[in-house]
Amino acid sequence: MFQESYSRYIEQAVPDKALTDHVLRLGNLPEKKSKGVLRAVKRPAIAAIALLCFLIGGVPALAAGIPIIYDLMYLVSPPTAQFFMPVQKASEDNGIRMEVVATYIHEDTAEIYVTLQDLEGERVDATTDLYDSYSINRPFDSAGYCERVGYDEDTRTATFLITITEWGGQDIAGDKITFTVRRLLSDKSRYEDLPLELDLSGVGKAPDARQVTNFSGGGMNSEIFEQEFASVLGSSNLSLSPVEDFEIVGAGYIDGKLHVQMVINNSLQKDNHAYLYLMDSNGAAVETEYTIDFFEQEDENNPGSRVDYCNYIFNVPAAEIGGYKLYGSFYTSGNLTEGNWRVTFPLGGYPLPEEELYEEWKNTSMSEYIGTQEWFDYNQSLKGWIPDNYVPDYVPGMDTKWKAPFSSEFASVCTVKSEDASAGIMGFRAFFAAGERQEIRAVADGVVIEVMDRYFDHAEDPYELAMMGLDHHIVVQYDEHIAVRYIHFAPESYIVEVGQSVAAGDVLGKVHGSYRYYGEDDANNGEYAPFWCIVDVLIDGVLADPTEFFEEGLLTDDPDNKAYREYMSDK
Amino acid sequence: MEPEMSNEAVVLEYSNMVYRLAYAQLHNKSDADDTFQEVFMRYFQKKPVLNSQEHCKAWLIRVTINCAKKYQTSAWNRKTMGLGEELPGADDIQDDSGIADALQQLSARYRTVVHLFYYEDYSIQQISKILHSPQSTVRTQLTRARRQLGELLKGEEL
Questions:
Q1: Of A78, A332, B63, B146, whose CA is between 20 and 30 Å from A198?
Q2: What is the pLDDT along chain B (158 residues), one digit of tens a residue?
Q3: What confidence tens digit (pLDDT) does each residue in A156-194 have?
Q4: What is the DSSP string of A191-242?
């Protein structure tokens, strides 16, 4: 097998240790620029969800599984419930079954309902949380989050709603995603608004520092970090543990602000987190100004040895601090279940058939599209689609002797040396970025000799293979040697037929755009082709550099075209 | 979401992946070394915001391919300056199965696709996403690379 021998071969390529070490050293140099993001620890309560859970609690036991989902959907969003499409793909591991029940795709957002059911025990409960323990693999850049929307006691089934939004507002219907869960947290406890027995009036300047090794932190200004690190950490004699795994170890004033430091153990295993606030004598709460988190990394031989440090900074002057009391809210989970639940599913959404797409094209005016952000983005993205070794050259005007296949204001052109030798298209080709639904016009006079109104994706025989790069094209013979080939028409958009004479500037058809390439499994999960047109100039069937024709105006209706005669005599 | 990976973790996780991809394109240890270093330097400098490990990997793949291009050009220049056949360096992988020779004869672009498909196990769709090129292009490149390799490595099942 090639795959095996290739793997055997390429696996011999390994970076030298010295090289890797060198790169690692480079990576550990301190960053010059600080990112300066201070993360707020307090997690906003989502009122709607809380309300929903309450509602569910009040609903009498329903039949298991899917009906509950639909009820939930109606509760969450009645107008959209009907759009959810069933998926019903499940994965079972460790006695827990995860099922992707339904999806609803609209524009750039996908909503996905997932249920988790414990078939054996009671590891899934009304507090089960996937926070930080799930991952969504998808072929597009996106933001996603997951929230629990319900729990059914009788079937021990928890329901989650995952929402994914693609960056850039692309239409995501047709993509596939994989939803993976590795760990479940349940048996969650919350200890909220606990008064902490700490006499703040006794807090003075922070005492000596203690050194911590092997730490990591994220999202902080390095200067603040170092200061924090040196002075607050290890304010030795204080130890106050309101809840197991949480311990307040230090408090002190730095630069006129109160810093309180807490150590959290088992933060990963139990999703332990907390936040602190101050309350003045009138009962008014004072939130932290900011917080700083860092942690001592886990010792590999001793799982669970990671220690998190969380510093809470309050902007209350030392003179007034005696009038405040410290409160905290603590969250911990008693039960961690590990496993591997994974479901891959298509993101619903069925694309329109090509005819409908084309109808839609015809009804949209180009002028609404040109110059829009969408158009600009498209033109930018086109650059990524065109192979290497090209110099994109915007041709404003295009008013030279060469007639562009599109009206000038939005045609950009580049020439590309193609390696598609098997299709007879080795050589330079001209790529024109087109607007959506644009008409392709003849660049030169001639007689139409070939109209191909189909495209080949899965090439079986040599002919189809040769045609793979040439879907939907027209060939116009200019003279006995030269022909011009226009590629990327919309299906059935031709308004010429074989044998017809055309003059430069005549409309041949419309540019093909938003149709999908079919994916490997014939599912319609491919992506949209951009709007472009390729113009090939063929001399006796062989690609010639079209720029010469473009720039020199070789293809004109002038029978005494001197440039053309000279050009041809050189050949 | 997965926590952000430290520089060190990224290097350790992806060093082989990046190096092999660079080598697959360049077939030359010293250029692969340089590419390897440059890819991670760019990563450290840019600190791209990547929302998943897959995304991070895809970023590194793209940067590796871009960085390697530079050396492809210079290798080409060396070749055309009259050195004739490029001789394998002392450190380059020695291989008697003929696979190295066969790969040498493919263009770097085909080698990239072959590597991603056969070694990194990406599907055509994923490769097209990573390389930002249309699926049909990737599929065509792969088909042609396969056919060329099939001729060069007679008897190997592709």
A1: A332
A2: 445 678 888 888 889 999 999 988 888 788 888 889 888 888 887 777 777 778 888 888 888 888 887 676 544 444 444 343 444 455 566 666 678 888 877 777 788 888 998 888 888 888 888 877 777 778 878 888 888 888 887 766 55
A3: 888 888 887 776 666 665 566 777 888 777 777 888 888
A4: EEEEEE---GGG--B--------SEEE-SS-HHHHHHHHHHTTT-TT--B-S
Of A476, A501, A513, which Cα lies nearest the Cα of A381?
A513
Q: Please give the distance of CA B10 from its chain centroid, rounded to a whole number.
A: 18
Residue of B nearest to A22 (CA): B37
Could you tell me if B78 and B31 are in contact, meaning their C-beta atoms sit under 8 angstroms apart?
A: no
Name residue A414's beta-bridge partners. Answer: A431
Name chain A contacts of B40, Cβ cutoff 8 Å: 23, 26-27
Side-by-side strand order, sheet with A290-296: A215-217, A290-296, A307-314, A257-265, A246-254
d(CA B19, CA B120): 13
Nearest to A517 among B6, B44, B135 (CB): B135
The answer to whether B17 and B65 have CB atoms below 8 angstroms apart is: no
Check residues A254 and A474 and name the one with the higher pLDDT.
A474
Q: Which residues contact A519 (CB under 8 A, 6 or more apart)?
A: A525, A526, B125, B135
Burial code of A288-327, b = ≥16 C-beta within 10 A, e = fewer? bebbbbbbbeeeeeeeeebbbbbbbbbebebeebeebbbb
Report the residue count for chain A.
Answer: 571
- Evaluate if residue A425 carries a pLDDT over 70: no
User: Look-up: residue for tokens 């390994």?
Assistant: A14
Calculate how close chain A gets to B44, using CA atoms only, in Å. Answer: 6
Nearest to A457 among B95, B123, B136 (CB): B136
Interface touch A2/B156, C-beta < 8 Å:
yes
Place of tokens 């200061």: A227
Pair of tokens at residue A418? 């193609």
Q: What is the pLDDT of residues A497-508, one digit of tens each?
A: 888 888 777 788
| pLDDT band with cut points at 50, 70 and 90 for residue A398 | very low
- Beta carbons of A318 and A71 less than 8 angstroms apart: no
Please report, for residues A10, A25, B147, B153, B154, the alpha-carbon distance to residue B157 in angstroms, rounded to integers and kept in the order given. 18, 43, 11, 9, 8
3-state secondary structure A389-419: CCCCEECCCCCCCCCCCCCHHHCEEEEEEEE
Would you tell me how many other CB atoms lie within 10 Å of the CB of residue A89? 14
Q: Which amino acid is at A429?
A: R
What pTM does this model have?
0.35
- The CA distances from residue B35 to A134, B12, B40, B41, B95, in Å, are 34, 16, 9, 10, 22
| Residue B73 contacts A, CB cutoff 8 Å | no
The answer to whether the Cβ–Cβ distance between A529 and B134 falls below 8 Å is yes
Contact status, residue A361 vs residue A511, Cβ threshold 8 Å = no
B6 contact A CB<8A: yes
Name the residue among A2, A27, A520 with its Cβ closest to that of B158.
A2
Show the CA angle centred on residue A357, arms to residues A355 and A363, nearest 5°.
105
Residue A180: beta bridge partners? Answer: A135, A342
Q: Are A232 and A271 in contact (CB under 8 A)?
A: no
- What the block records as the tokens of A145 is 């989050």
The Cα of A163 is separated from the nearest Cα of chain B by a number of Å equal to 13
- In angstroms, rounded to a whole number, what is the distance separating the alpha carbons of residues A428 and A415? 6
Number of Cβ atoms within 10 Å of the Cβ of B121? 10
Chain A touched by B19 (CB under 8 Å): yes
Q: How far is CA A88 from CA A128, A328, A332, in A?
A: 21, 42, 32
Query: Chain A residues with CB inside 8 Å of B128's CB?
Result: 527
